[in-house]
Amino acid sequence: NKIDNIQSSQQAKTEQRIMDQFEMESMIYTQDPIYLKFLNAVSGEKSSEAQLPVFDIKSKYSEMLQAYYEIVVQRMADQLPMLITFYMLKETAQLLSTDMLSILEGANASELLFEDSDVSRRRKHLQSRRNRLTAAQEALSNFI
């Protein structure tokens, strides 16, 4: 099934991107202003960027790790749903629409758009019935 193939392909791609995201998180990195903001929140102190190299003392390690942990958690909370949404919804929809258009190119469009005579007759009957009911409603509203 073509849809299942696209879905499983996108799922594999999504899983790979998520694994890449976890692998990138094993490289300890964050921007200094962001790190400082979280470190100040964790420690309850007010420090500046100039003091960052001074923080490299053992007594601050637990606060430093906690600040970095909070940054990573926030980054993952933002990135993972975005990766899933992008690959499983947006790209899958794009691939499906491309495949559907390629199917239509090979088919005779007039045959696909042709309406069965029974359906056509029923549609015309329902339209005329709706028109009669609308006229009756107008006549009743004018009468009242």
Automatic annotation (TrEMBL):
InterPro entries: GED, GED_dom. Residues 58-144 form the GED domain. This is GED domain-containing protein. It comes from Cirrhinus mrigala. The lineage of its organism: Eukaryota, Metazoa, Chordata, Craniata, Vertebrata.
